[in-house]
Structure formats: structure tokens, C-alpha cells
Automatic annotation (TrEMBL):
Entry's localization field: Cytoplasm
Keywords carried by this UniProt record: 4Fe-4S, Cytoplasm, Iron, Iron-sulfur, Metal-binding, Pyridine nucleotide biosynthesis, Transferase
Cofactor(s) required for function per UniProt: [4Fe-4S] cluster
Role: Catalyzes the condensation of iminoaspartate with dihydroxyacetone phosphate to form quinolinate.
Protein name per Swiss-Prot or TrEMBL: Quinolinate synthase
A GO cellular-component term linked to this record: cytosol
EC number: 2.5.1.72
Organism, scientific name: Kribbella capetownensis
Length: 353
């Protein structure tokens, strides 16, 4: 639906009034009605890198989900305040790994005698305390655009990786980019004693994958790929690495949001593309590239409900409050967590490429 013109006008006015006081960051999965006001758009890696681009702006309005706003708070200076227009914009995947569960998993690895040779790597899509856990224990953060270089780095530091919380990104990267076999990947289930794994399984594994997934990307199936190939002759299938392994191996191309955008921008006119990622982005790409036939990989898959929580009414509410001198929904990470989470984020930002 078209944006409410009254709200668009109010957002424009508030943003103009705030001027350099506010820096608006927007993830590619945000609604059109919100992303139009972003000063910088990006995938989670680009937004982490660019969060510190305006150190003089006292307010950063983050149009994305909670873990991204936390990372922005960690990566910006103490004078800057990060605002998340709706605090209910979380991430179901990030919620699948709680710090107490991760600490229990680390104890289970220690009991099995493998913690010393294991490097914890967490996907950006995790809470700040889990990033801090990785920082404290010699590990790093990664995103979908640098998971391969992060794993290369991790395997230089140790023999095994505990990969949190997205089993699919971990498995896809290990198997497709690192030459690790499926047999060398095990899944640690935080709801089972010892993760449901024996000492022998832990000893033999190279990748210990946390049992987490994205509730959006996890819904694409191998049948979605077969169906779209039958429906659209000559279609190229491009998917995000949060998709299940059987989907990724059936697709033609796999990569982060930024990779998908670049691939479609440079694709030949007249080509057909089925895209397996969040619907707001796929619809935007289809609108922007009318010289190409761009379809959603599986029409039964929905928007990311939490990304969609940041809508124009919440965005206007956050901005108008700033104009009135009120900070609503600040996201702050405590100093100790911030110190170690920053260590893990900085290790990622220092990776080559
Ligand atoms: P990227 O931004 O790394 O492509 O990740 C997608 C995602 O699911 C963000 O929540
Ligand atoms: Fe989380 Fe998936 Fe939504 Fe990204 S798309 S915020 S990983 S639920």
C-alpha cells in the first residue's frame, strides 16, 4: 500500500528540522515507506561498517531489528544515542540463542575436552551478550557477506568452530566454501542435555552448529526451487545463505542481501530471476528493474514480521519526539558487554576483503 501522505509529510518535516542531528540507517528488508528516509541503506555488514560514518550526529535512528541497533550502539561513540523506533522489532533467530544456553554449551564442550580447540563464531544476528561471549573466548562475529573469511580466520585459530545461532549459514558456508563435509557438521540442540551430542561426536566434528534458523528464509524448500523452474522457463534462482542446505544446493547462486542486489543490478535485461530472500527487498528489486523478470521464490513465504514492525507511524513517532527533545526507545549496551562485543565485531571488521 502507498504511504500515508500525511505521515510522509510529517517524516520529511521532522527529518528536515533535525538536519545533521539525526542519521537514519535502514536495512534492505525494511518497508518502502521507511527505507525512503534512510541516509544509508545496507545489509547487516554494510550497516555495521557505516554506523560510525557520522560521529557528530547525536542520534542514530536505526530502521532494522534489535541486534542491529545494539551493534550500532557498540560501534558508535558514547555521545551518540541509537534509537529503535519499535522495541518489538526483534529477530526470532537471535532469540534462539540465549547467553545462559551458550555458556552451558561451552561447559559441555569443556567436559568433552574440546573447548580449548574450539573458536566461537556468532552470526551478527545474535544479542550483544553472545557477541561479547565470542569476544571473551577468542572468537568473532560474522555476517552473511563474510562468513567464509570469518571461518577461514577461525580455523587458523583453532580446530573446530562453534557457530551461533544460524545452523544454515554455518553449514552452507562450511560445506560450500570451506570444503568441510556434511558429516563433519553436527547440530547442538540447546534444549537437550549436552546439546544431544556425545563426546565422540563432538570430538569428530569440525563445525558445531547451533540449532537456530531464520523463520523467513527457513521456509523456502527444495520444492520451491523445482516449482519455480517448472513455472518460469530459464529462470535463475538466487537465494540467501540463511536458506536450508538442500535449497542452496539447488539454487544457481547464493549470497548476502548486498550480493543479491548487485547481481540483479548487473544482470542482462530480459533475464528471469527467482529470489529467495525477504519479500520487501524482492518486491523493491522487481519494481526497480522492470527490464528483468524478478519473482519471489515461494509465494507462501511471508515478510519478516519483526522487520515490518518498523513502520511509518513508529518512525514518525521517534523523529517527532526527537524534535520535541525526547529520546524514545534508546538502545544501550552495558560497558562490559560492549567492550567484549566490540572486540568480536572489530575482529570481523579487520577481516580481509
Ligand atoms: P544480511 O543483512 O547479512 O544479508 O542478513 C539478512 C538478515 O536476515 C538480516 O536479518
Ligand atoms: Fe531475523 Fe530472519 Fe527476520 Fe533477519 S529475516 S530479522 S534473520 S527473522
Amino acid at each position: 500500500p502507498a504511504s500515508d501522505p500525511d505521515l510522509v509529510e510529517r517524516a520529511l518535516k521532522a527529518k528536515a528540522t533535525l538536519g545533521d542531528q539525526v542519521f537514519v540507517l535502514g536495512h534492505h528488508y525494511q518497508r518502502d515507506e521507511v527505507i525512503q528516509f534512510a541516509d544509508v541503506t545496507g545489509d547487516s555488514f554494510k550497516l555495521a561498517r557505516d554506523a560510525a560514518a557520522r560521529p557528530d550526529a547525536p542520534y542514530i535512528v536505526f530502521c532494522g531489528v534489535h541486534f542491529m541497533a545494539e551493534s550500532a550502539d557498540i560501534l558508535t561513540n558514547d555521545q551518540q544515542t541509537v534509537i529503535l523506533p519499535d522495541l518489538a522489532a526483534g529477530c526470532s533467530m537471535a532469540d534462539m540463542a540465549r547467553i545462559q544456553q551458550v555458556e552451558a554449551a561451552w561447559d559441555a564442550l569443556a567436559d568433552a575436552g574440546v573447548a580449548d580447540v574450539t573458536v566461537p563464531v556468532t552470526y551478527m544476528n545474535s544479542s550483544a551478550d553472545i557477541k561479547a561471549f565470542c569476544g571473551r573466548n577468542g572468537g568473532a562475529v560474522c555476517t552473511s557477506s563474510n562468513a567464509d573469511t570469518a571461518l577461514e580466520w577461525a580455523f587458523e585459530q583453532g580446530e573446530k568452530v562453534l557457530f551461533l545461532p544460524d545452523q544454515h549459514l554455518g553449514r552452507n558456508t562450511a560445506v560450500l566454501k570451506m570444503g568441510i563435509s556434511l558429516d563433519e557438521c553436527v547440530v547442538y540442540d540447546p534444549h537437550k542435555p549436552g546439546g544431544g551430542l556425545t563426546r565422540e561426536q563432538l570430538a569428530a566434528a569440525k563445525m558445531i552448529l547451533w540449532r537456530g534458523h531464520c523463520s523467513v528464509h527457513g521456509r523456502f524448500t527444495a520444492a520451491s526451487v523445482d516449482d519455480v523452474r517448472a513455472r518460469v522457463p530459464g529462470v535463475n534462482v538466487i537465494v540467501h545463505p540463511e536458506c536450508r542446505h538442500d535449497v542452496v544446493v539447488k539454487a544457481d547462486l547464493v549470497g548476502s542481501t548486498e550480493y543479491i542486489i548487485q547481481t540483479l543490478e548487473t544482470a542482462e535485461p530480459g533475464t528471469s530471476w527467482a529470489v529467495g530472500t525477504e519479500l520487501n527487498l524482492v518486491q523493491r528489486l522487481a519494481k526497480q528493474h522492470t527490464d528483468k523478470n524478478i519473482v519471489f521464490l515461494d509465494k507462501t513465504v511471508c515478510y519478516c514480521a519483526t522487520m515490518n514492525r518498523i513502520d511509518l507511524p513508529h518512525f514518525v513517532w521517534a523523529l517527532e519526539n526527537l524534535v520535541a527533545g525526547h529520546v524514545v526507545n534508546p538502545i544501550t549496551v552495558d560497558a562490559d558487554t560492549e567492550k567484549y562485543a566490540k572486540l568480536a565485531l572489530d575482529r570481523m571488521l579487520a577481516l580481509p576483503g
